[in-house]
TrEMBL record:
<dbReference type="InterPro" id="IPR011527">
    <property type="entry name" value="ABC1_TM_dom"/>
</dbReference>
<keyword id="KW-0472">Membrane</keyword>
<keyword id="KW-0067">ATP-binding</keyword>
<dbReference type="GO" id="GO:0140359">
    <property type="term" value="F:ABC-type transporter activity"/>
</dbReference>
<feature type="transmembrane region" description="Helical">
    <location>
        <begin position="168"/>
        <end position="188"/>
    </location>
</feature>
<dbReference type="Pfam" id="PF00664">
    <property type="entry name" value="ABC_membrane"/>
</dbReference>
<keyword id="KW-1133">Transmembrane helix</keyword>
<dbReference type="GO" id="GO:0016020">
    <property type="term" value="C:membrane"/>
</dbReference>
<dbReference type="InterPro" id="IPR036640">
    <property type="entry name" value="ABC1_TM_sf"/>
</dbReference>
<feature type="transmembrane region" description="Helical">
    <location>
        <begin position="12"/>
        <end position="34"/>
    </location>
</feature>
<dbReference type="GO" id="GO:0005524">
    <property type="term" value="F:ATP binding"/>
</dbReference>
<feature type="transmembrane region" description="Helical">
    <location>
        <begin position="98"/>
        <end position="120"/>
    </location>
</feature>
<feature type="domain" description="ABC transmembrane type-1">
    <location>
        <begin position="14"/>
        <end position="265"/>
    </location>
</feature>
<keyword id="KW-0547">Nucleotide-binding</keyword>
<keyword id="KW-0813">Transport</keyword>
<dbReference type="InterPro" id="IPR050173">
    <property type="entry name" value="ABC_transporter_C-like"/>
</dbReference>
<protein>
    <recommendedName>
        <fullName>ABC transmembrane type-1 domain-containing protein</fullName>
    </recommendedName>
</protein>
Length: 265
């Protein structure tokens, strides 16, 4: 919630959501149109097969004691395929099917590209706003905050966490949204064909939700532990850089190197 609120105004977020949905709908329509086209071709072939006599080529035998004639063997058989682009297949002809499919492909490319640009623009705005808010809050913080939180923990927030916001979160979030959109489109198509498939789908979704809750608790604990163990490393480096002249004058380099290795272990 806070991440999306930092990404921009409500209108911007709604526009991004519309682009995400329309982009997935265009991709689904492309798949549906190919399926519809293929089904119409199959029905057309079935109608042609039922209206004509099927010739069994294996039973066509040349007369004995005569010279084999290729023209006689294939007599009455049209060897030229029907490549007429204006031939009607169901309600439309082939050219109209191609025009509609090309238009859907162009729309799919346009909306998918637009949603990617819009999504990453929102993510960049959210990352910048969260960084600025965190920095301003730290500047306005009381001294007790700096006494309770070491410099390493603060540096960890501004380095690793902001790095995750800038690099990892947008990519993984977009992939997650795409997976969910594809999943819902597949479920909608399956439900339109076979309604009873919604029952096992609901059971599987509940099972996955339970597993997700268990995983999130473990993942959050591990990330919290990782942040706690990384903070002493940043604190040690910050203190070392601030007192580098004193360390060199007293010859305490080896002791600080051992402390740094111990914090890493």
């Amino acid at each position: 919630g806070a991440y999306w609120r930092a990404g921009g105004r409500t209108g911007t977020i709604l526009f991004m959501i519309v682009l995400l949905i329309v982009g997935q709908l265009s991709a689904t329509l492309c798949d549906y149109w190919v399926t519809f086209w293929t089904n119409e071709v199959t029905r057309q072939k079935e109608r042609e097969t039922n209206s004509t006599t099927t010739i069994d080529y294996d039973r066509v035998i040349a007369p004995k004691n005569t010279t084999f004639n290729l023209a006689t063997y294939f007599s009455g058989i049209d060897l030229v395929p029907d490549l007429d682009i204006h031939a009607y297949i169901g309600p439309l002809d082939t050219s109209q099917y191609l025009y509609v499919y090309s238009a859907l492909i162009v729309c799919c490319i346009f909306f998918i590209t637009a949603r990617a640009f819009m999504f990453f623009k929102v993510c960049m705005t959210a990352s910048r706003n969260l960084h600025n808010d965190m920095f301003h809050s730290m500047l306005r913080g009381v001294m007790r905050f700096f006494d309770a939180n070491s410099s390493g923990r603060i540096l960890n927030r501004f380095s690793k966490d902001i790095g995750a916001l800038d690099e990892l979160l947008p990519r993984f979030l977009l992939e997650c949204i795409q997976i969910y959109l594809v999943m819902f489109s597949i479920l909608a198509l399956n439900a339109a064909a076979l309604v009873w498939t919604l029952l096992p789908t609901t059971i599987i979704l509940l099972l996955f939700y339970t597993i997700l809750q268990i995983y999130l608790k473990s993942a959050q604990s591990i990330k919290r532990l990782e942040g706690t163990t990384r903070s002493p490393v940043f604190s040690h480096m910050s203190a070392t850089l601030n007192g580098i002249s004193t360390i060199r004058s007293s010859g305490a380099q080896q002791r600080l190197i051992k402390d740094f290795d111990r914090f890493q272990d």
